[in-house]
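Reopening this ticket.

The earlier resolution said the output was attached, but the attachment link was broken on my side. Pasting everything inline this time so it's all in one place.
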Amino acid sequence: MNQFDIPIVMYHSINKHPQKNPLGYLSFYPEEFEAHLKMLKKLGYELINMSDLLEMEIDYNKKIAVITFDDGFVDNLLIAREIMEKYNARGTIFVNPEYAFDSKVSDVIKSKYGWGYMNFDEMREAEYSKVFDIQAHAMTHEFIFTSGKIIDIYTEDKFDKYYWLAWMLYPDTPKRWDGDAYKYAKLIPEGFPIFEYNRRLSCQKFIPNDEFIKHALDKYEKVKDKQELISILNDDEDEGKGELETHERYIEEIKVQVMDCKNVLEDELNKNIEVICFPGGGYNDLVLQITNDAGYRCYMRSSQLREDNNINHLKKMKQGKFVGLNRISFTRNYPKVYSKAASAYWVGKISMKSFQNNNVYTSVKKILRKIR
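Inline output:
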């Protein structure tokens, strides 16, 4: 492996109020994010975006890192941009165009919490700032049920885990996914059955029967032991619970998620969309085939999957091949021995050195994983 691989760093939200949204576990505080950028600059990295990476000639003597943000949270624009400008950093935001809405996020929400998804005006502002590059994150970021097997029962205290049920039952919800997201916890009926689930692109969708859902909600009121309720409901025949979408319908959905996403963003932003990040790493060979046919040049692998190195992948891409690129993420789940900034700095440095195959830092990272 080359001495210096090209790290593609994955972020989501940079926010002062992670507790105000069930996706707050994906957030870094601004001081943590700034510590990461400070660390990367001290290590000698030039911080670029995906468009920069695709256009540049590979220089094996130059240390570069790519900054990326998944999901298109408006705090990328409101909070992260100023910090990135301070460190002369550029980055890519992967967005879901289905979640963009017509009017801007209200000033009240922005000043109060900074949560919500960017609309097209804000995406254009991000592009025009020259700090950000917008790329595709599929049309939506939804979860789907994948079988008729019930694994849990929804209650309001489980909203952090099953927040996406609000998106599933009320499709306009993501467009209003602001700092008051917990108000949607009450929209999901208590006792709603949770079937096996995954990301939208991962496989065919199981569609529950409305009558079965009514039956399950009725049983919830009568059966006190919820594990017993799950067993009772699972004893029902699968065909009575719902049906699996056809393979043909699944292919149509992949095209919507991949092709329509590309077309919408290109029309709205007047640019070529060449990179896609699949939500939650939910993809398979069929998805990759359709994505390749759609004209994308590369995709992001899950941060837990690392194959070969990005320099070799980029060489293949410049030869016309469709490739997957490796990413790295920094954890927030570590002991806060020092301040947020100091802890983030050192944990980030350990992760970066380990990514570049420094054996000492890799050993330290393994120790941290055991004690966190």
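Reporter confirms the inline version is readable. The CA atoms of residues 143 and 198 lie 6 Å apart. The chain has a mean pLDDT of 90.
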